[in-house]
Design a protein that fits this description.
The complex is a heterodimer of chains A (250) and B (227). Chain A has 250 residues and is an alpha/beta fold. In chain A, 32% of the residues lie in helices and 22% in strands. Chain A contains eight helices and eleven strands. Chain A is globular, with a radius of gyration of 18 Å. In chain B, helix 8 packs antiparallel against helix 11. Chain B is globular, with a radius of gyration of 20 Å. The chains are: A alpha/beta (250), B mainly alpha (227).
């Protein structure tokens, strides 16, 4: 069931105007600098924000259509969403957080074992580390068998080593998920590492030129440890660049 | 006779406080939820109305309630039409008066507790498929226990010590509206100092013990959060 979104929303300093689609089993990374409107795109797709114009459909189901005044509530969209900073329920332990809306507890257990947090099942979420919270958030989102997975800067709050491990764990698992996955990041190399397709967004508009400039800079020896993108070049040596970007770089 | 003149008012005060607290936890939570999470027209007017009983002299509030709950008042006439009896000088009447009088003591701590909850928790719960009602009971309430505890104590103790409003609306009907605070006043007027001493001591000790228990509970909560 592919996701399609065509949205327009007036923000404080610019108008967000983006069209995107993402097929089942594919990862689309929305990448761009801070304040580009990336999170707003995810929030509109999730139904947490309303666009001024446009629509969102998954498969044949319309979730949002401003012209027809259709707005399916967030709770009925069957989403999994990993928020930035992982807002887990502080009154529950790790197990109860993962099972919060899981229809099948055996899947919840399987995910926790796979992400290495099963031993923390009885621990309160405020007593676990950032990396463990992040794994818990991913398990929570996946345990409800979502029809669409949205990830908003899921690795940005982690230390480099934890970030690397979790990116690799997620990349290993993404092929098993037969749902569209939208991933938002400001880190182009993370997008290259995880995504099947990349949508560069700058000030609310799709801007391939921005991505191309970055890639050309990288080819000419641009430091991969620059502050703007934050990261460690050695962690990305195994990046298999998508064909289209390889073509840009040629 | 002496025993009933002491125990009955104390029992009535306790009963009034429990009923008022129970009702106000529900009503207060509903109002606080509306004020924190929904867009309310003329919000400042609504908030001022809710807070008004906190600053009004109890006799002024009692006077207005007397007018509204009297046979010619809106509420009193409607009640009389429904039940055939008067609201004034009845236990139900002083319960309504207490609810109005203690309303801000329930709404303010609950409002503060709800506002402290991270909005993303509520959004995450919606993403995970919870209805607004389920979000309230599964996320908002468990994360506002300190607010509910504070609201319960304030309302309970405030109602236990209520005097002016109850006197205006309920008078002093033995077994019906003569709560401990009114009975103490009447005992002193009648020079029955022993009765006044006993009832005052019971009220003071009850409040003190109540506060110790609550401090222990909230202390444990704070330690759990810190740990």
């Amino acid at each position: 069931m592919p996701l399609q979104a065509d949205i327009r929303k007036r923000l404080n300093h610019f108008t967000l105007q983006v069209s995107l689609s993402c097929g089942a089993g594919r990862v689309l990374s929305i990448v761009g600098p801070s304040g580009a409107g990336k999170t707003t795109i995810l929030r509109i797709i999730a139904g947490l924000d309303v666009p001024d114009e446009g629509g969102v459909t998954l498969g044949g189901t319309t979730w949002t259509d401003t012209a027809a005044r259709v707005m399916v509530p967030t709770r009925r969209r069957g989403l999994g969403m990993v928020f930035q900073d992982f807002p887990l329920f502080p009154h529950l332990n790790v197990w109860k957080n993962v099972c919060f809306s899981a229809p099948d507890v055996s899947l919840a257990r399987h995910l926790m074992e796979r992400f290495g947090i099963w031993h923390l099942k009885d621990t309160r979420v405020d007593a676990v580390s950032g990396g463990e919270r992040q794994r818990c958030a991913i398990c929570q989102a996946l345990a409800r068998k979502p029809r669409l997975l949205l990830m908003d800067e899921p690795f940005s709050a982690l230390d480099p080593l934890t970030r690397r491990k979790l990116r690799e764990a997620f990349r290993a698992m993404k092929n098993e998920l037969s749902i569209p996955i939208l991933h938002v990041t400001h880190d182009i190399r993370e997008a290259l590492f995880l995504a099947d397709e990349i949508l560069p967004v700058v000030r609310g508009r799709v801007c391939h030129k921005w991505l191309l400039q970055f890639m050309l800079s990288a080819r000419e020896g641009f430091s991969c440890t620059d502050a703007a993108t934050g990261g460690d070049s050695e962690l990305y040596e195994d990046i298999d660049l998508p064909v289209r970007i390889k073509e840009y770089m040629r | 006779m002496a025993t009933s003149s002491i125990l009955l008012p104390l029992w009535l005060s306790f009963k009034l406080s429990v009923v008022t607290t129970g009702v106000l936890l529900v009503v207060g939570a509903l109002l606080a939820h509306l004020l924190v999470y929904r867009s309310v027209p003329a919000r400042s007017v609504v908030e001022s109305l809710i807070t008004l009983p906190m600053v009004l002299p109890p006799t002024v509030l009692g006077f207005y309630l007397l007018v509204v709950m009297g046979p010619k008042g809106t509420l009193g006439a409607a009640w009389q039409g429904l039940t055939g009896s008067s609201l004034l000088f009845t236990f139900t009447g002083i319960v309504i008066a207490s609810i109005v009088y203690s309303l801000p003591f329930a709404v303010q701590p609950l409002k503060a507790a709800f506002a402290r909850i991270d909005r993303r928790l509520l959004e995450n719960a919606a993403v995970l498929g919870l209805s607004p009602m389920a979000i309230f009971f599964r996320v908002v309430v468990p994360n506002s226990l300190a607010g509910f505890t504070a609201a319960s104590i304030l309302v309970f103790l405030h109602t236990m010590g209520e005097f002016g409003t109850i006197l205006m609306v309920g008078g002093s009907v033995p077994g019906e509206t003569r709560v401990a605070s009114i009975a103490i006043f009447e005992a002193v007027e009648a020079l029955r100092y022993r009765d006044a001493w006993i009832m005052s001591l019971v009220l003071a000790l009850t409040s003190f013990v109540f506060l110790i228990v609550v401090n222990r509970i909230t202390g444990k909560d704070a330690n759990a959060v810190a740990g």
